[in-house]
């Protein structure tokens, strides 16, 4: 489930990239560059891979999926249409910061449900 989404614009007003954080067992964060159709996925252990040829419509479908992990394994993983490469691994502090964003989001939802 999408927890946080930020769009960063270019000087011309177009979307330069989108960063999203997810409440998912497998997918922590994505960074998507629509102009070059490249998607970076940071997984729960911090390993980050990039996937090419990801259209804006496909990325939107990914963001809106009920489960990003299931969507990834069903439609992206091992799909030759989306060539991938390992990019880097997040520092443990970066992983923890992302998990804290998810936890704070969960608390807000629980508080809203209690009202």
Descriptive overview:
The chain has one domain (2-114). The protein is built from three helices and six strands, in the order βββββααβα. The chain has helices at 56-64, 68-76, 92-114; strands at residues 2-9, 15-22, 27-33, 38-43, 47-51, 84-89. The longest helix is centred in the last third of the chain and has 23 residues, at 92-114. The radius of gyration is 15 Å and the shape is globular.
What's the helix and strand layout?
Blueprint lengths: L1 E8 L5 E8 L4 E7 L4 E6 L3 E5 L4 H9 L3 H9 L7 E6 L2 H23 L1
Antiparallel strand pairs: 1-2, 2-3, 3-4, 4-5, 5-6
Q: Briefly, what is this?
A:
The chain is of the alpha+beta class and 115 residues long.
Helix-strand sequence: EEEEEHHEH
How does the helix and strand content classify structurally?
Answer: alpha+beta
The proportion of residues forming helix, as a percent range, comes to 25-40%
Task: Please state how the strands of the largest beta sheet are arranged side by side.
Answer: 1-2-3-4-5-6
Uncertain stretches? none
- What's the domain count? 1
Mean pLDDT score, rounded?
A: 93
Cα shape: globular
- Tell me the β content: 25-35%
- What's the helix count? 3
**Main beta sheet:** 6 strands, antiparallel
Structural key phrases:
six-stranded antiparallel sheet; 115 residues; 3 helices; alpha+beta
